[in-house]
């Protein structure tokens, strides 16, 4: 693609300023550092960029040596969606576990400790929390990422999370506006549609966003969803009605609006990333998240040139791009001031485990804890893209620590039940599931296991929508490492 500009004029600097790109590697590539000098104002970290906390701190220091006020963003929700602990599983339970406890002080404390750890690594912008009301239990992408299905509960915990995270000097980005909870399609793959009327949306989906705005959230992330009651033609990310008229004017929000990943199929597969980027900024977005999939210099150049070209063609007002760039710089000023203030919450390294233990729901007691190592059968569904497949989950690692000799296997599909029985032999079976209610093969496997082995222990690490069953049923409300530990402690009686 022909480069339109040299990289030094105001228009080009503004076009670069609104991009939040990712990159590959655990150190910053030369092209990224060069673009920072040309006006790029933000970078994004993903699991591929992270090895250890010390390495992340060195990486962010390298980036800030080029530009001190750069925003360094990450998609760190805790729970199932973790980048900082992508290879071990999170030290924090996710939103659904916090909603199950329903203690806003605990939610605030968890978010503050997460923010403190991010800040210690040099990260100052977190694409969290998810404020989606999980109105559809079959939702394939939100699920345990939501605080729950009750708008008031989700609202109070969203506000607590925003307050806690920002107390550590890390800007919160409340997502996915105007609400991704009542969808049956993952926007990573296609455009989800919500057919609720405007009253339902206002009284359900928008309630947590109002609470986040009142709590001072520094950013809001748009969703690539079509809600015909709000805009019959365009998904939220590209809709002036949704971003400017509703979020800015009706809800009174004045902070940064950032898009969900622009290369997600809901946008890329329908509009293309260049046109989608220009349409999003024109609609009222201020920043473009990109890099979860496309993480190269050419992508940054293409999007920069698309914005410059849209301005020159009269499709994007230059003052709208300038306003968006200034909102990015304004957020960077806030995070820089917070970082330089030196004020941080007191460390609370055990708050995540305390929360996971409180979230655990136990059905089937009295129960005699295991003393012999069991066979852990993990009934594994296909992961959604937001969670990814790099992060370990389940209870096997923690049970192996408590009951040495524990064996484990992963099973999927219609033959899972008989396969587990063959693999387990005479050992006690601990069956670990994730959203049993969404996967008929998983429910069938449990039928088979419980018919042959009624003493099977069931650990549900997704939404506990299916009726509890088994000699003992544990609902963890999420698959974070600490959720697995809390469940393993009950099984082993420690």
Report what the structure shows:
It is a single chain. This protein has 18 helices and 14 strands. The longest helix is centred in the last third of the chain and has 24 residues. Strand 4, helix 6 and strand 5 form a beta-alpha-beta unit. Helices cover 41% and strands 11% of the residues. It is α/β, with parallel strands linked by helices and 494 residues long.
Q: Could you provide a short overview of the structure?
A:
With 494 residues, the protein is of the alpha/beta class. The chain has 18 helices and 14 strands.
Please state the CA-atom Rg, rounded to the nearest Å: 23 Å
The overall pLDDT average reads 95
Termini, distance in Å? 61 Å
Main sheet summary: 6 strands, parallel
Q: Name the poorly predicted regions.
A: 1-7
Let me know the number of strands: 14
Q: Which percent range fits the helix content?
A: 40-55%
Strand percentage: 5-15%
DSSP summary: helix tally: 18
């Amino acid at each position: 693609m022909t480069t339109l500009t040299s990289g030094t004029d105001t228009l080009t600097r503004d076009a670069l300023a609104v991009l939040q790109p990712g990159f590959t590697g655990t150190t910053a590539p030369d092209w990224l550092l060069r673009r920072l000098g040309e006006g790029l104002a933000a970078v994004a970290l993903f699991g591929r960029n992270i090895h250890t906390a010390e390495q992340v701190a060195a990486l962010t220091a390298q980036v800030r040596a080029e530009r001190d006020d750069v925003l360094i963003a990450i998609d760190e929700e805790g729970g199932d969606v973790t980048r900082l602990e992508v290879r071990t599983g999170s030290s924090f339970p996710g939103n659904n576990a916090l909603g199950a406890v329903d203690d806003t002080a605990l939610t605030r404390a968890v978010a503050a400790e997460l923010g403190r750890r991010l800040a210690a690594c040099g990260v100052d912008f977190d694409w969290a929390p998810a404020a989606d009301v999980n109105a559809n239990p079959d939702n394939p992408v939100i699920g345990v990422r939501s605080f729950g299905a009750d708008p008031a509960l989700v609202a109070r915990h969203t506000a607590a999370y925003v307050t806690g995270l920002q107390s550590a000097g890390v800007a919160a980005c409340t997502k996915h506006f105007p609400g991704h909870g009542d969808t049956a399609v993952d926007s990573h793959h296609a455009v989800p549609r919500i057919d609720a009327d405007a009253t339902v949306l206002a009284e359900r989906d928008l309630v947590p966003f109002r609470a986040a705005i009142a709590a001072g959230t520094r950013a809001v992330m748009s969703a690539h969803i079509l809600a015909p009651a709000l805009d019959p033609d365009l998904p939220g990310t590209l809709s002036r009605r949704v971003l400017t008229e509703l979020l800015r004017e009706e809800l009174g929000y004045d902070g940064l609006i950032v898009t969900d990943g622009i290369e997600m199929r809901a946008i890329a597969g329908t509009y293309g990333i260049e046109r989608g980027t220009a349409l999003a900024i024109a609609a009222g977005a201020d920043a473009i998240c990109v890099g979860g999939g496309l993480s190269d210099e050419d992508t940054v150049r293409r999007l920069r040139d698309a914005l410059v070209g849209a301005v020159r063609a009269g499709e994007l007002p230059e003052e709208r791009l300038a306003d968006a760039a200034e909102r990015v710089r304004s957020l960077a000023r806030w995070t820089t001031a917070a970082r330089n203030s030196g004020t941080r919450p007191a460390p609370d390294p055990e708050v995540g485990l305390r929360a996971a233990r409180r979230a655990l729901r136990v059905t089937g007691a009295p129960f005699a804890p295991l003393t012999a190592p069991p066979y852990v059968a993990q009934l594994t569904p296909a992961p959604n893209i937001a969670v990814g497949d790099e992060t370990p989950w389940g209870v096997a690692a923690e049970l192996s620590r408590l009951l040495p000799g524990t064996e484990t296997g992963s099973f999927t599909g219609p033959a899972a039940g008989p396969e587990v029985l063959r693999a387990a032999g005479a050992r006690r079976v601990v069956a670990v599931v994730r959203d049993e209610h969404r996967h008929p093969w998983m429910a069938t496997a449990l039928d088979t296991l419980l018919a042959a082995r009624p003493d099977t222990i069931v650990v549900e690490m997704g939404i506990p929508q299916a009726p509890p069953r088994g000699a003992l049923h544990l609902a963890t409300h999420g698959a974070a490492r600490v959720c697995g530990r809390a469940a393993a402690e009950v099984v082993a009686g420690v």
